[in-house]
Amino acid sequence: MPVLLKIRRRFAEDKPLEGTQIGAALHVTKETGVLVRTLKAGGASVVLCGSNPLSTNDYVAAALAEDGINVYAWRGETTEEYYRCMNRVLDYSPRIIHDDGADIICLVHEKRQNLAENIIVAQEETTTGINRLRAMEKKGVLKFPVIAINDARTKRLFDNRYGTGQSTIDGILRATGILLAGKKFVVAGYGWCGRGIAMRARGMGANVIVTEIGPVKALEAVMDGFTVMPMTEVAALGDVFVTATGNTKVIRREHMRLMKDGAILANAGHFNVEISIPDLQSISKDRELILPNVEAFTLEDGRRLYLLGEGRLVNLVCAEGHPPEVMDMSFANQALCAEYAMKHGKELEKKVHNVPDEVDYLVAKLKLETMNVTIDRPTEEQIKYTEGWKLGT
Ligand SMILES: NC(=O)c1ccc[n+]([C@@H]2O[C@H](COP(=O)([O-])OP(=O)(O)OC[C@H]3O[C@@H](n4cnc5c(N)ncnc54)[C@H](O)[C@@H]3O)[C@@H](O)[C@H]2O)c1
């Protein structure tokens, strides 16, 4: 993660976060470890919990704890433990929050409101979190400003698309070891993540079919060369189903009843609600863990459907999440926005804000530098031309 390391070296000299208490609720992966150490180098005290009960890498949690970071996270937390860990992070009364999915931000709004005034800025990492926060902004209930890290171009173009694309396939393969070539591979949702997953599954020789509810996204999928169908029609055809919608009950009882024996179900969206597990349970006579992260649900007529990673983020539960090369950019945005929050947080309204353009550009510029890629500079004449309007045919 060379961009983040570059930022860390500067942070170690400038100490832009000196004395600041940061509370982070992020997937506890090795990449998050690099971010946490960067924030610490900048002078912050960091306390960390997970943003999903099943995504913590215990080795990383232990290594950070050895570094003196307070970590409240382990793989396989119950829901109660998950919230207990979040509450422990809030006990430190953080000034800046790094969230992924908006659970800790919502916890402050619902149960720990006395802490809100002390929070300068919260930073949100993922689409689902941003959707929740925009809903809060619309209702006028947001108690502090939020920076939408997810919406930076250097985040979602790469992390959501290439990161989720590759690591979702990685998770499915690590869990099942199946051959993708020739499989009917259904991707629900053709947003940033779905597009990446569809693209990579096609690259492995799968026959990819997309489901959508948005006409423009559906059209894009068609023009990208994918078949688009409703879930009710494709349910009986698919060998592998992956949801990436940020929505709920995208695969439910009526679809599961139609599925082939041996169909594999996985979710790449933020919460474990995209595949209705209560529905799956209700039509099954038996449920058995047959491999790590693979549960077989046996239906009344003997057909078996396989659910990966308990319907939680398949790339984080069954693999190691996004590759460091993309998290380098996502977390560079997180680190630089924490610095921005210290300088400008007090001027921001209690709304969801975009990552400042200068941060987005800087991350792209630094990433290109670390990849030894140089680009052209416009000439004076070109600048004048693109800024003017008088020159035509
Ligand atoms: N696994 C990961 O590591 C990872 C990384 C980034 C984002 N995410 C999560 O993945 C989800 C998708 O994120 P995104 O950035 O692609 O969002 P997005 O908004 O770009 O795309 C979501 C798409 O799903 C479609 N959709 C919604 N409901 C649907 C339904 N019932 N059936 C079919 N399509 C439907 C929408 O029309 C949209 O095109 C979010 O929950 C996000 O938080 C996960």
Brief write-up:
This protein has 16 helices and 15 strands. By secondary structure, it is an alpha/beta fold.
Question: Can you walk me through this structure?
Answer:
With 393 residues, this protein is α/β, with parallel strands linked by helices. Helices cover 44% and strands 17% of the residues. The chain contains 16 helices and 15 strands. The strands form two sheets. It has an eight-stranded mixed sheet. Helix 2 links the parallel strand 1 and strand 2. Helix 2 (30-41) runs parallel beside helix 14 and helix 14 (324-344) packs antiparallel against helix 15. Residues 126-128, 156, 160, 164, 188-194, 211-214, 217, 244-247, 250, 268-270, 313, 315 line the site of nicotinamide-adenine-dinucleotide. Nicotinamide-adenine-dinucleotide (NAD) is lined by residues 126-128, 156, 160, 164, 188-194, 211-214, 217, 244-247, 250, 268-270, 313, 315.
What is the 3D shape?
globular
Low-confidence stretches: none
Mean of pLDDT: 97
The number of E-state strands comes to 15
Question: End-to-end distance, in Å?
Answer: 47 Å
- Beta strand %: 15-25%
Question: What is this structure's SSE topology?
Answer:
Layout: H1 2-14, E1 21-25, H2 30-41, E2 45-49, H3 58-66, E3 70-72, H4 79-90, E4 96-99, H5 103-110, E5 121-124, H6 127-139, E6 146-148, H7 153-176, E7 184-188, H8 192-203, E8 207-211, H9 215-223, E9 227-228, H10 231-234, E10 240-243, H11 253-256, E11 264-267, H12 277-282, E12 284-291, E13 294-299, E14 304-308, H13 314-317, H14 324-344, E15 352-354, H15 357-370, H16 380-387
Parallel strand pairs: 1-2, 1-4, 2-3, 4-5, 5-6, 6-15, 7-8, 7-10, 8-9, 10-11, 11-14
Antiparallel strand pairs: 12-13, 13-14
Helix pairs in contact: 1-2, 1-14, 2-3, 2-14, 7-8, 7-14, 14-15
The protein binds nicotinamide-adenine-dinucleotide.
